[in-house]
Amino acid sequence: MKEFIHLHNHSEYSLLDGCARIKNLVAKAAESGARAVALTDHGNVYGAIKFYKECKAKHIKPIIGMEAYVTDDLTVKQRGTPRYHLILLAKDDVGFHNIMKLSSIAFVDGFYEKPRIDFEHLQQYSQGVICLSACIAGEIPQTLLNKNYDGAVRIAKRYQALFKDDFYIELQNHGIPEEREVFGSLKKIAYDLGIKTVATNDIHYVNRSDAKAHDVLLCIQTGSDYDDPNRMRFPNDEF
C-alpha cells in the first residue's frame, strides 16, 4: 500500500466544528506510521505552534496550513454571498508567513460571518504555498454541482496558473452523493489539464467513536437541540 498522509484536518481550533484535538491527531498519525500530518483549521492558524511542538515530540513532520474561505469581493458583506473552501499548505518558511498574512487579512479586512480572502490576496501571497481544491464546499466542486463543467475548468486553470505545480485537485469520498456526483469530473479536469490529484479525508475527529461528541459540538455551534431532526448535522461517521 502506498504511503498515506492526512492533509485536511480540523482541530479544536476550527472553533465549535473540529473535534480532533491536536495532541490526539498527531499521536494517531504517528501511531499509524505516517511521516507527516497537516493542520488545516477553518480560516486560521491558531494551533500552529502547539501543532509544531506536538509533531516534533512525536518525530513526525508538521505541515502547517489552513482551510481558507474565498469570496469574489471582500467589500460585499451580505447574507448569501458565496464563499468557497480552499486548502493552503506551507511548503517552506515563506509560505508559512504568507498563510499567516492571509489569515490576518481574512479577519481584519474580509470578515463577514467567516474570515474571508479573495483571489487578489491569494495572488499577492501565493509564494511558498501549496493549494488543494478542497472538499465539496470548494469552488470547483460547487461549480460542477451546478452543472457547469466549463466553468469548473476555467476555475481550475486560474488556480493552476497561479500555483503552477503546487496546485492539486482534491478527491474525497465520505459516502456522500454529492462527492460521488463530481468525482469523475474532478478526475477528468485533472487529467485534461495535467493537474496532480491528492486523496484526503475531511477529518473533524480522530476516531470513529468520536462522531457523537462532534455531533454535540455542532449543536453547541448552531444553538440547536440534539433531538431536532432539522438541525445541521454531518451525514455519517466517516469524518
Compact overview of the structure:
The protein is an alpha/beta fold. Helix content is 39%, strand content 16%.
Biggest sheet, in brief? 7 strands, mixed
Structural class: alpha/beta
Q: What coarse outline follows from CA principal-axis ratios?
A: globular
Residue stretches low in confidence (pLDDT < 50, at least 5 long) are none
Q: Into which percent range does the helicity of residues fall?
A: 25-40%
Instruction: Give the SSE string.
Output: HEHEEHEHEHHEHEH
Q: What would you report as the Rg, rounded to the nearest angstrom? A: 17 Å
Figure out the total of helices: 8
- Distance, first to last CA: 21 Å
Report the count of strand segments. 7
What does the average pLDDT come to?
A: 97
Strand content: 15-25%
What does this structure look like?
The chain contains 8 helices and 7 strands. The chain has helices at 22-31, 48-57, 93-108, 119-124, 139-145, 149-163, 177-193, 211-222; strands at 36-42, 61-70, 84-90, 116-117, 129-132, 167-171, 196-199. Strands 1, 2, 3, 4, 5, 6 and 7 form a 7-stranded mixed β-sheet that branches. Helix 5 crosses helix 7.
Which descriptors would you attach to this protein?
239 residues, alpha/beta, globular
Summarize the SSE layout with pairings.
Elements: H1 22-31, E1 36-42, H2 48-57, E2 61-70, E3 84-90, H3 93-108, E4 116-117, H4 119-124, E5 129-132, H5 139-145, H6 149-163, E6 167-171, H7 177-193, E7 196-199, H8 211-222
Helix pairs in contact: 1-2, 5-6, 5-7
